[in-house]
Design brief:
This protein is an alpha/beta fold. The chain folds into two domains: about 130 residues, NAD(P)-binding Rossmann-like Domain (Rossmann fold); about 170 residues, Dihydrodipicolinate Reductase, domain 2 (2-Layer Sandwich), CATH 3.30.360.10. It is built from twelve helices and 14 strands. Strands 13-12-11-10-6-9-8-7-14 form a nine-stranded mixed β-sheet. Strands 2-1-3-4-5 form a five-stranded parallel β-sheet, with helices on both faces. The chain is globular, with a radius of gyration of 20 Å. The model has no long low-confidence stretch (mean pLDDT about 95). Bound molecules: nicotinamide-adenine-dinucleotide (NAD). Nicotinamide-adenine-dinucleotide binds next to strand 1, helix 1 and helix 7.
Length: about 375
């Protein structure tokens, strides 16, 4: 299969996730970066393109220019998709314009800075028939997929309780906001959206719960708080109920001192509990009352893994794969989907529009609940 020719929007000099997307796409092997509008400032966009080796004539000063000029190129030359890695408020405008011009979209979470703009993206996808994949990174880890299979297989029994936390400390001091490109827009409601940490990482935690359990968060009550002087949440917790009746708690915080990036999830069912933690992503722990604790390790030669899980690895067991490979698994799956490959058994391998819209409803429900004093709210 020919690689998908794509153009990147955002991800210029000093940016965080754009470089991760490019690396993931390269590891995936079924994508080829051919164009870019990498920054909000035309000069910086061009300098950024030069720095990563994009050709001069396909390094654009703005995303609008890229979409217009690429659409005018011959069909077998122009981009087929865009990767959108801009701050949240700059997701909907380029996503909608790209789809209107006939391009598919791979986009980072959250889908937009507001539910209304996320819905506008969904409407544009329905109108144009273009396809969207959302990069909910943590669902790309092989052992997270194995956890999902174990829950779906029923061997663990019915789901009782989920505990998930996503804690960081990079915004725990007031000076963390000074001269920090990533912090600057994340604490600004106009660019981040009405939610801070809950939009930024709470969505990852909520999506992970839904991915592993195969259920939706149906109702919740939440308390979102922030350090003095901030406008949007940097910390909070929610209780939730799942569509299948299971219960759970979710904590998301960017002010938990000592935690760099601690995403951890426990799923308790009638017969067993499952535990996965992003800082040790190559192991999945299964606890039962009447048996010793099992630790599953991953890797391309762990023959006890199901074949679809084995197929996600690039290295033999004992050679850790991590964040970039998980991201690459999402690119690989979405690229295959764009090329018409049949959907893999069980799940598409990337977050869909439905998943992303539900995450936006999760954010809105948390905000509404918290504003009303932590009352229960339906999604
Ligand atoms: N999946 C994940 O694990 C993950 C991790 C980090 C960030 N993200 C998401 O990725 C997005 C970007 O986050 P980040 O941390 O990389 O931000 P960042 O501030 O580091 O980078 C944003 C980039 O977008 C560019 N940009 C802004 N406006 C633009 C415009 N109009 N046209 C072209 N480029 C423009 C900026 O110049 C910058 O290069 C956010 O939506 C964030 O939520 C996802």
């Amino acid at each position: 299969m020919q690689p998908i020719r794509y153009g990147m929007i955002g991800g210029g000099q000093g940016a965080f996730i754009g470089g991760v997307h490019r690396t993931a796409a390269a590891i995936a092997g079924n994508w080829q970066l051919v164009a870019g509008a990498l920054s909000a400032t035309p000069e910086k966009a061009r300098a950024s393109g030069r720095e990563i080796g994009l050709s001069e004539d396909r390094t654009y000063g703005s995303w609008a220019e890229m979409i217009e000029r690429e659409a005018a190129l011959p069909e077998d030359v122009r981009i087929e998709a865009v990767a959108i890695v801009t701050p949240n408020h700059m997701h909907a405008p380029p996503a909608i314009a790209a789809m209107e011009a006939g391009f598919d979209v791979i986009i980072d979470k959250p889908l937009a800075e507001s539910l209304a703009h996320a819905q506008a993206i969904a409407d544009a996808a329905a109108r144009t028939g273009r396809r969207i994949g959302v990069t909910q990174t943590y669902t790309g880890y092989s052992l997270v997929k194995l956890a999902r299979k174990m829950v779906a297989g029923g061997e663990l029994g019915a789901l009782r309780r989920v505990m998930v936390k996503y804690t960081q400390d990079w915004l725990s001091r007031s000076e963390d906001l000074v001269d920090n490109k990533q912090a600057e827009w994340r604490v600004d409601p106009a660019r981040s959206g009405e939610a801070g940490a809950f939009g930024d990482i709470g969505t990852h935690a909520a999506n992970l719960v839904e991915f592993i359990t195969g259920e939706r968060i149906a109702e919740l009550c939440a308390e979102l708080t922030m350090l003095e002087g901030r406008q949007i949440d940097d910390d909070g917790a929610a209780m939730f109920r799942l569509s299948g009746g299971g219960k759970g708690t979710l904590t998301a915080s960017q002010v938990c001192v000592g935690d760099a990036n601690d995403l951890a999830i426990s799923i308790y069912c009638d017969e067993a509990g499952l535990h996965w933690r992003q800082v040790e992503p190559n192991k999945l722990v299964v606890g039962r009352r009447d048996k010793p604790v099992e630790t599953w390790h991953d890797g391309g030669n762990r023959a006890y893994l199901p074949s679809d899980i084995l197929a996600l690895h690039r290295t033999p067991g004992g050679h850790p794969e991590g964040y970039l490979e998980a991201f690459a698994n999402i690119y690989r799956a979405f690229g295959d989907h764009l090329r018409g490959a049949p959907a893999p058994e069980g799940e598409p391998g990337f977050a869909t529009m439905d998943d992303a819209l539900h995450s936006m409803r999760f954010i809105s429900a948390c905000l509404e609940s918290s504003r009303q004093g932590a009352v229960w709210v339906n999604l």
